[in-house]
Amino acid sequence: MQPQIAPSKNSYKVAVIGAGASGLVAARELRREDHQVVVFERNNRIGGVWVYDRTIESDPLSIDPSRTIVHTSLYDSLRTNLPREAMGFRDYPFVAKDGKQRDTRRFPGHKEVLHYLEDFTSEFKLSELIRFETEVVHVGLVEEEAEGKWIVRSRGKNIIVEDEEVYDAVVVCNGHNTKPCVAEIPGIDVWPGKQLHSHNYRVPELFSNKVVVLIGSSMSAVDISREIARVAKEVHISSRSVTNKLLTNHFDFNYLWLHSMVKSAHEDGSVVFEDGSSVTADVILHCTGYTYDFPFLDSCSIVNVDDNRVGPLYKHVFPPQLAPSISFIGIPWKVVPFPLYELQSKWVAHILSGKVSLPSQENMMSDVQAFYSKFEADGGPKRYTHNVVDYQFEYYDCLAAQCGVPLPEEWRNQMLFATMMRLVAQPETYRDEWEDENLILQAHEDFAQYIP
Ligand code: FAD
């Protein structure tokens, strides 16, 4: 991608779906480029997943289509897995603030992240752009329009009649940590125990004295298994990678075992693993991640979710055939989310305003196909298409170069690396013991330009 920064020429009417971290920063960047922005948010406040809710869904596996959806997937004890210096937006640092409600720790609890997003909203006067308690129920192309305008239908809380408006562009920021993926287990229908997905995990008490099989090896799986190991009778972690250091370093806990994948479950309560071992369990906890979901989107089958690949998307943002009138913020995972959303949003806002150009539709499509081919040749499973961990820094640099803003700070990259090393070496203490003081200093020197 070659940057071509030109003067701004377009001002579009843009619908942003969602007022979580990605929708908020998208709204700010779009308004900075003089677009007219409306943010639709079905909750009554900003923050998305960071709005902790003790309520869980009526179906603990979140499969029943008639359930009421609870958006958040946070558990009560959650602290960030990134240090605040690296986690915050680039030009609105996530620095510790004094105040009764504030959490000044370097890896704060979830409430502090919500406070930070509220501060961000207030600083940039974003509330005036947001329609709260308004759910987008349909986004579809205006048929007679060659230019690709969009019909957006939305519905207010307790209001049956839908509102219909036409927008020049739609920026999808609805999050992707709400619709669970659940492991398929032969025999599960006759297995008598209880199952739940980590989306519905809040506190460990439910697991007191229980034998638990926890499937997964993500950061949430690590946190949750450590937490329930304090109250459960036994915790058996089932992971694709039994040599995963994040998990093997767990073994300072009693009653915690590591197994291969679950092979089957049986009527007598046993759960059998692929290595031949088995356990009689009370609960299976699926920490198996989430799937992308755009229930409101009618793109005439141009954009699809297939095995957790949203595609085709040029650079994980624009569907070539519909670009730039619809874009997706926040699709990549294994990233530093907030700065990534900021860069993607700047790119979208600059492209809509005409400051930066996209390649032709054919060239974008060729780029996507080349990416898929290489990804598959490297043995990447389709469901990992948006896992950008191996090239995240190049990806950030590419977006920054497109927008003509400085490349992401070197201290941020190094801090991320130092955090990952600590997480693996000392999962219990990585949030409270560190040695990267020099990087913290560099971060604060950098922040001085943004903090009055
Ligand atoms: P969300 O926060 O999910 O926001 C989406 C918004 O869209 C919601 O407010 C929702 O109500 C709204 N919405 C959805 N559909 C509609 C609709 N049809 N109409 C109107 N509104 C709609 N990130 C970090 O940086 N650090 C961490 O430590 C960290 N820990 C995490 C721990 C857990 C357990 C999870 C699940 C995630 C964690 N994350 C962390 C990632 C986190 O998801 C992102 O940081 C980020 O907050 C996601 O923001 P988002 O705006 O993309 O999505």
TrEMBL record:
GO terms for molecular function: flavin adenine dinucleotide binding; N,N-dimethylaniline monooxygenase activity; NADP binding. Coiled coil: none annotated. Pfam families: FMO-like. Keywords: FAD, Flavoprotein, Monooxygenase, NADP, Oxidoreductase. Gene3D superfamilies: FAD/NAD(P)-binding domain. Its cofactor is FAD. InterPro entries: FAD/NAD-bd_sf (IPR036188), Flavin_mOase (IPR000960), Flavin_mOase-like (IPR020946), FMO-like (IPR050346). Its EC number is 1.-.-.-. PANTHER family: DIMETHYLANILINE MONOOXYGENASE (PTHR23023). Belongs to the FMO family. This is Flavin-containing monooxygenase.
